[in-house]
Each structure stands twice: as C-alpha cells, then as structure tokens.
Amino acid sequence: MSRRISILPDAVADQIAAGEVVARPASALKELVENAIDAGATDVRVLVEHGGKTLIEVADDGCGMGREDAVLSLDRHATSKIRSAADLTGVTTFGFRGEALPAIASVSRLTLTTAEDDAEGSELQVVGGRLEHVGPVARQRGTTVTVRGLFFNTPARKKFLRSAASEARAAYEAIATLALAHPGVGIELVQDGQVRLAAPPGQLEADRLIAVWGRDLVGTLVPVEHAAGAFRISGFVQRPGDASPSGRRTQLFVNGRPFRDPFLVRAAEAGYRAAIHPGDRPSLYLRIDLAPSEVDVNVHPSKMEVRFRDRIGLERTVEDAVRQAIGAFVAAAPVGDWRPMPVGATDIPAGELLASLFGEPPADARAPAGSDPEPVGAADPFAAGLTQLFDTFIVYQAAEGVVFVDQHSAHERVLYELVMASISGQGAPSQRLLIPATVELTDEELDALERHRDALERVGYSVEAFGGSTVVLQAVPTPHPRFDAVACFREMIADLARGRFGGWANPLERFGATYACRAAVKAGQRLSQGEMRALLLQLFATELPPHDVHGRATIVQLPREELERRFGRR
User: For residues 313-330, b (16+ Cβ closer than 10 Å) or e, as one string?
Assistant: First the structure.
C-alpha cells in the first residue's frame, strides 16, 4: 500500500508559517520591531524601500546576541521568552512564538548582524531559509536585521502584494502603531529616503500622540482615567462636538500590546450615548491594563486578537470610562491651542463640578429654571461677573478663566436628562389647560403621535382625538415660563414624523432629544440673573454638562493663561 501521509520538509513548513505570520511587508516590520523592543531597545531605526518589497531594515540598540544564540534564533520555535506551556498564561513579551525570524528568512534574503556588550559581533546571511554565511563583524551592542527581496522564492505569494504605495502606507501604520504603544522608545521610520516618522525616546504619551496623529486631531481629544475592579482604562477620546461620520482613528492597547476589537470600540461609542449625533464616530485611543492572567494573547499568529476572561465587565468599564471623560469639565470646548490636561482632572464627577470650581454648591442646586433662587451659604458661586451676551450666551468668571454657556444647548441637556428620568419613572407634572387647544395633524404625524403617546403622557401632554385629523391638548408640561406648549407639540410631532432627529437606536431617546430641543429656552431670549443662575446649577448637576444631545458644545472655556498670552502677558 502506498503512503499518503508524509512529514513536510522544514523549508516548506517555514514557508507555511511565513504565510501566517508574514502576510505582507508590514507584518514583517511589526515582528522585527517588536523583537527589538523586547530586547530592551531605546532607539529603533527602520528603513523601507519600495513599500518593503525590496528592502526592510530594522536596527536597534538592544541587548544583542552572542553567535550561538544568533544561529539558534533562525530555527523555528526558538525563543528566549518562554520555557514551558505554563509561560503562555500571562505572557508579557510582544514576540514569543519563535516563528517570525525563521519565517521571514525562509522567504527572503536576510542578513542578521548582532553584538552583545564588549563582545565580537556576528553576521549571518540566510537565503530562502538556508544559512549560507556566519562570521565576525564590527558592531556596537544591538541587532540589525536586513530583509531583501521578500517573497522572492514564492512568486505566487509575491504577486498578491499590493502596489508599493499601498504597502508603504501599511508599513507606516504598523510602525506608527508601535510608536504609540511604546512612547518611551525612540522610533524613526525612513521610507525611500524620506523620514516619515521621527519620535524621540522618552516622550510623554500626549506628545507621542501629536507626533503620530497630528496636532489638529489630538487637539480635539480629552484624557481618560478610570479604574473599576480588575480593569484600568486610560488614554484619550474625542470631544463629542468634534466627532464626525468619517475620518475617525481608533487605537486599542492591552498591557501595552496593540490589538483590534470591534466590540470594545462599540462599548466605547456607547459611552457617547445622547452626546453625539447618531452616525458620528469619535476617535479613540484607549489603554487597558489588567493582570496578564486575565487576558489570552495567544489567539492568532499575528497577535492582533485577544480574549478576555471577563469581557462583559471590561465592556462595561470601557463605557463608563468614556462617559466619565466626556462628562468632565475638561471636555468643554476650549478657546486657543490644545494642551495636555492633567489626567486627574477627569476624575471629577459632573455632580461635584460646582464644588471643584467654586467651593461648596448652594443647597438649591436643582432649583427649576425659571425661578429666582437665592444662594444658600457664604458665597454665591456666580457672583464674579455672571452676565448674558446677545441674549444667547451666559458668561461668568471661573477660578482659572472665563466660561461661556450656550443657554439653549445647556437647557436642552438639562431637559433631556429630566425627560429620560420621567419616561422611566413616575412621569413629570403637567398643567391642565383652561381652554383645550386643537391641533391639525397630517397622517404621518398622527402615526408618530400614536407611536409616542405613552412618552408624551409621561412628559406631561394629555392628547385626545377630536375627529378626523384633529387632536385636542387637555394638559401640557411646564418646563419653564417661556415655554410655548402648543408650538412645542406641533414642532416635536413634525420632527418625529419626518425623521429630523432620526438615527437614534432607542425610540425613547429619540423622543427625549426631540422634546428637549423644542422645549428648551431659545437663543435670543433674555434671562434674569436668577434664571441664569438656576440654569447653570441644573446644568452642572447633569451627567454630561459639556454637551447637548446633538454633540454640540454647551460650554466653551477661555483659560486665563490663553487670555494673558493673547494680550502679551505671557
């Protein structure tokens, strides 16, 4: 009987491994730079030509290798990072499989130059997986890996590479991601003779982010710092007002390792609920730190997918971290150049914001907008210059600058949170009309009325059919003295029927946003001192004071230092 089963030759097995680990030049770059970082490098220099098709070179100042280790490193599954299967639980190094270097060598012409401290260097040359030369060489401590003619001996794989420009972009993204993951390591990328990235060692995380993502985008981010249970979440997320349907960037790290996870991105976006317009996609840069035993990084050869022991808990923590960050005062839109804010500034819950800015808040912090409360306590928190500009913006002096508040957006945020609480609770108080109001509706508007009848009753509207397309308003809500209940009803039903506030996944949230927008005080309405004070107190008691329900800013800060800089005092 003829044999049908045979053991693959090492050269074929290496090429199969290369297909898993080294799908394109960017994959080889990622593996080589991670090896350099694992070797303790503080500076890594990367050269790429023709998108990596003709040349890839990674030079580092890490620990280097002796000649015996250098030769052994080219054998498949040779690694210095694990010794037993138990080491795979909680592995903390970035490369650990022992596949990358021999896999790359099997499909290229590879030269490895390395040296340890005060030792003679070694040079190894490999062609298509075959070691052809080992000899001495002069080199300072560290390692250089030069890869030429990637996939030269596997033409079927080589023809599936994209254009040089596409491969160059992928190579840049791979290096940029590693530069973000390791701000303490200096990384330089030179492509076709041009420096594409120059990140010096020892950078602050915010400065490294500016170097990679650019100052314009980073200027729209606010810091994240949150811990719960086994998880610690840090990084930066985009202000709701700067999110857009396209052009967003996302980067996730777990214990310093970049990875992809659409479900965690979705959890982060859930933190923006009722703070951005449906369809907007904010940029995210989040680091997740947890015990190594709580995450499995050995899921895929590329190590871009991981598994978490408590995924549900992590998703909840990520959502809470984002929610807390965009609810903090530092998430308010700034005037002037962005500067890294102290991470601790995001630790202030929205409900404690008045105390942090002005001292203890008055006892009537939830006084209804429209009343004229007198502050309780030794000091009025808005005594320092509370005024109204253009009958639209409320302005006051804070501890470290001037704050501008859009009265309509602010009241919209207040009403939205009150409405959502009313819908889920006992409902809001209403006022019966002495003379019921009749309203003519279209067929589409009548359908919208029926879909949202329960929510309308909970916010205070009592609506009855009158005949044909006419309905009667028997009772209406009373959110503030300037509220036109009938006009609000007409506009709200029209919006709900025509989908003007469409895109909300939750119909009740859509209703709440529509009602809050139509019921809020309008731009151009003059407010008394008491009304302005009450509105601000209510705003700062909400969960997300810096943003209305459409993602627009409710608060704009003008820091004192920015004012002094513009007048030449700095």
Answer: bbbbbbbbbbbbbbbbbb
